[in-house]
Write a structure and sequence with these properties.
This protein has 235 residues and is of the alpha/beta class. It folds into two domains: 1-76 and 157-235, P-loop containing nucleotide triphosphate hydrolases (Rossmann fold, 3-Layer(aba) Sandwich); 85-155, no CATH class. It contains eight helices and ten strands. It has helices at 40-47, 70-74, 92-97, 112-124, 140-153, 170-187, 198-204, 221-229, and strands at residues 2-11, 14-24, 28-33, 55-60, 63-64, 77-80, 158-161, 190-194, 207-212, 215-220. Strands 6-7-8-3-9-10 form a six-stranded mixed beta sheet, sandwiched between helices. Strands 2-1-4-5 form a four-stranded antiparallel beta sheet, with helices on one face. Helix 4 crosses helix 5 (140-153). The longest helix has 18 residues, at 170-187. The chain is globular and about 45 Å long. 40% of the residues are buried.
Length: 235
């Protein structure tokens, strides 16, 4: 679970989120929505501990994120960015193995347990058969699954993703959103990801957080969508 209290997030002089309090629950996938430039990425970076908030606190599993060491944060929060990984001669298994860095020795050597974690992560996203493939030979959707597998191998209770459905076609977006929801519910993880796909968020997510500067509005997904579009339930 991720909890925040009196949280203010800024980009330069612009206040994106002000004095917000709430939580993202375990075993739930939450879609973070809002117009371009609203501050979705900035908020995710604060929740990941990469950037500091202008004010307020963020707690993960009851512990203040700001008080954690870098190693402890790496064992607590995994962050998947929008950056495309296209490194030649780097296999999928090697990329996923990077997620085990918080647990390996000082030279990054994988133990048998680490290798089993890598195999399990690839299997969880349906990419076991791609373990030896290199990232530069794969589609955007396949690469995104590998990056999610790396986050799973990191074995954190919280996974944050910045627009993971970018660059995917519509069927791929639905499929990936369903995968993230399954990871949250079956693994008991807190999954939060930014997206512009309101219809997918409504169908696949347990909750939605709307960034509308300086507000952060959190609601069950269907309720939020109805409010945005002024839809009345006729039942």
């Amino acid at each position: 679970m991720v909890e925040f209290e009196n949280l203010t997030v800024a980009h330069g002089r612009n206040i994106l989120v002000e004095n917000a309090s709430g939580r993202f629950n375990a075993a739930e996938a939450t879609a973070l929505i809002g117009r371009n430039g609203a501050g979705k990425s900035s908020l995710l970076r604060v929740l990941a501990g990469i950037d500091r908030p202008k004010d307020g606190t963020v707690r993960v599993a009851g512990k203040d994120l700001a008080s954690m060491s870098a190693a402890e944060r790496a064992r607590t929060v995994a962050f998947v960015t929008t950056q495309r990984v296209r490194i030649s001669n780097l296999s999928c298994a090697s990329v996923v193995g990077m997620g085990r860095a918080p647990y390996t020795d000082w030279i990054g050597r994988l133990s048998d347990a680490d290798r089993r974690a890598v195999e399990a992560a690839l299997a969880a996203v349906g990419m076991s058969d791609y373990a030896s493939r290199t990232m530069d030979t794969m589609s955007d959707g396949e690469c995104q699954r590998v990056m999610i597998a790396r986050a799973l191998a990191q074995d954190t209770p919280v996974i944050l993703l910045d627009e993971p459905t970018s660059f995917l076609d519509l069927p791929g977006r639905y499929e990936l959103a369903g995968l993230l929801s399954g990871i949250a519910r079956e693994g008991g993880k807190t999954v939060v990801y930014s997206t512009h796909e309101l219809d997918i968020a409504r169908e696949r997510c347990d909750a939605i957080a709307l960034v509308d500067p300086p507000l952060l509005v959190m609601r069950p997904s269907a309720d939020t969508i109805c409010k945005i579009f002024h839809i009345t339930d006729k039942k």
